[in-house]
Write a structure and sequence with these properties.
single chain, Multidrug-efflux Transporter Regulator, Chain: A, Domain 2, alpha+beta
């Protein structure tokens, strides 16, 4: 883990994304967002830039929803 990049723990990641912590854990498990492990304590860590990109994707309207409105 690079010291220059900011990493967040599960609770912080959940707050940033507006979801519950278990959702973040599941998304990490299935690969929706990359998860890392803290080298000393093994806690799940998520790169803030990855979470921000995921948040943008979650907020973007889907094409399917847009075509249903037409």
């Amino acid at each position: 883990m690079s010291k220059q990049e900011e990493y967040l723990q599960v609770k912080e990641a959940a707050e940033l994304l507006g979801v519950c912590p278990n959702t973040v854990r599941n998304w990490g498990k299935v690969g929706k967002v990359d998860e890392y492990r803290h080298p000393l304590n093994g806690y799940r860590m998520f790169r803030k830039s990855d979470l921000e990109a995921l948040a943008r994707m979650l907020r973007a309207p889907s094409r399917t929803a847009a075509t249903r409105k037409s």
